[in-house]
Amino acid sequence: MTPIDLLGLFGHFLLLSLLAIGGAITTAPDMHRYLVAEHGWISDSQFTASIALAQAAPGPNLLFVAVLGWNAAGPLGALATMSGILLPSSLLTLCATRWGQARRDTLGVRAFTAGMAPLTLGLLVATSWVLSQPFRQQPVAWALIALTVVLTLRTQISPLWVVGLGALVGGFGLL
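Below the sequence we write its predicted structure tokens.
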């Protein structure tokens, strides 16, 4: 990867940082488009495995960004993606939190806060759609997706039980 490519990788993740409302995972569909479809720096299976590996590892949820960067361009790729995703969002969060805390009772701040919930939900659904792509041809996957939605919406069961069920299904080779 050339220095220009690394700068482009940094710049793309810099922009994604500003869209990552609800966490960096919500921008995974665009990361997929950029890394896999547009540039071909990693394959579809590498993309999915990178996210799965980072999510299974202890530590911050954001680790998948470093793994994607590493798979695309080694240590410099990991540095480009992580600094790109962390820099603007950290600075913006610091400034916005201080500003919003001082004005937390105003109508505009309350409306903005209420409007973020549906946006975050939509981004998470898009991420789920991209990550489920390799498994959507299998009826067991659709059954697990339906069960997850029903349990999440209708019960107080911890999502960790659903994650455990998915791990069992995958562990027994049903997916």
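The chain is about 75% helix and 0% strand.
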